[in-house]
């Protein structure tokens, strides 16, 4: 049994499809309101902040994949993410279940220095501190031998379907709707974006590779990084129309955040948009050289096609 904890999000769904396609049909989907992707999927309703519910959700699983996402709300993150991580670790330890954790980069410094698996945590906001805390909790449990686990870390998403990110919501979703895209902070700095189906494929692969455990892995991104201006140029070529964009300066988020909470929640992430964002996934590609990364052009074509 392979169990996806937090199965309703875009990563959980892509992961489930890939597990079914390449590894097993014995899949359990866990969330507050789970829904089947395949006829054979087993559904379990559970609140992972409840230790007993988490234990029941994990019981009988060979591998559990933690892909839970929460709305951009610092207070909610502080209240729920650490509890969920402790409950999942305890449940996996109790049942001898391997744990695969889908992580993000919020705990990394927002600098132009390339990010590798060895990059030290230096969060500059509340959400980043929460992500550093839960990653550290898992790393300590791994080092103590409490649980066999692996961390799969990814940068900002872009992708099809229900994918949510600044890039999707401000740029590609608006282009698809025939609206002018908004670029956060700068259109001239290169971005590292992960295609959500690639993230699901890579996570499934790592979770089913025994020697990958006990480590942190950066999931694969197109190494031919583009600026927002270049991404929009690709969108022009794909759609065959001229696309003008507006750059939203940091001040817009600073001032707007006083009145619109989501803008304020985004503010701590913006330093990474001021300069080049270089997420290095060379470790993954060295270990899995045959993994086919989706190019930005192919991904944009799928989103806008």
TrEMBL record:
<dbReference type="Pfam" id="PF01370">
    <property type="entry name" value="Epimerase"/>
</dbReference>
<feature type="domain" description="NAD-dependent epimerase/dehydratase">
    <location>
        <begin position="4"/>
        <end position="212"/>
    </location>
</feature>
<dbReference type="InterPro" id="IPR036291">
    <property type="entry name" value="NAD(P)-bd_dom_sf"/>
</dbReference>
<dbReference type="InterPro" id="IPR001509">
    <property type="entry name" value="Epimerase_deHydtase"/>
</dbReference>
<protein>
    <submittedName>
        <fullName>NAD-dependent dehydratase</fullName>
    </submittedName>
</protein>
<dbReference type="InterPro" id="IPR051783">
    <property type="entry name" value="NAD(P)-dependent_oxidoreduct"/>
</dbReference>
<dbReference type="GO" id="GO:0005737">
    <property type="term" value="C:cytoplasm"/>
</dbReference>
<dbReference type="GO" id="GO:0004029">
    <property type="term" value="F:aldehyde dehydrogenase (NAD+) activity"/>
</dbReference>
């Amino acid at each position: 049994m392979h169990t996806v904890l937090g199965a309703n999000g875009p990563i959980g769904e892509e992961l489930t499809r890939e597990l079914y396609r390449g590894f097993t049909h014995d899949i359990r989907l866990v969330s507050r309101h789970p829904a089947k992707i395949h006829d054979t999927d087993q559904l379990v309703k559970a609140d992972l902040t409840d230790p007993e519910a988490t234990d029941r959700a994990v019981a009988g699983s060979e591998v559990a994949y933690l892909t839970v996402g929460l709305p951009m709300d610092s207070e909610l993150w502080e209240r729920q993410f650490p509890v969920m991580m402790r409950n999942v670790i305890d449940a996996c330890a109790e049942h001898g279940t391997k744990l695969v954790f889908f992580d993000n980069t919020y705990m990394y410094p927002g600098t132009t220095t390339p990010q590798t698996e060895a990059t030290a945590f230096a969060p500059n906001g509340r959400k980043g501190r929460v992500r550093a805390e839960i990653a550290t909790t898992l790393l300590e449990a791994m080092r103590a031998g409490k649980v066999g686990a692996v961390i799969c870390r990814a940068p900002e998403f872009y992708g099809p379907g229900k994918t949510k990110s600044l890039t999707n919501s401000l740029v590609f979703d608006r282009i698809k709707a025939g609206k002018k895209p908004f670029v956060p902070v700068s259109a001239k700095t290169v971005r590292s974006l992960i295609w959500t189906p690639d993230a699901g494929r890579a996570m499934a692969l790592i979770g089913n590779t025994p020697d990958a455990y006990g480590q942190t892995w950066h999931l694969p991104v197109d190494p031919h990084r583009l600026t927002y201006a270049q991404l929009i140029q690709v969108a022009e070529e794909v759609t065959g129309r001229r696309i003008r964009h507006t750059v939203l300066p940091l001040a817009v988020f600073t001032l707007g955040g006083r009145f619109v909470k989501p803008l304020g929640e985004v503010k701590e992430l913006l330093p990474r948009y001021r300069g080049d964002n270089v997420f290095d996934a060379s470790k993954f590609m060295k270990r899995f050289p045959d993994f086919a990364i989706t190019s930005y052009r192919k991904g944009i074509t799928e989103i806008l096609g």
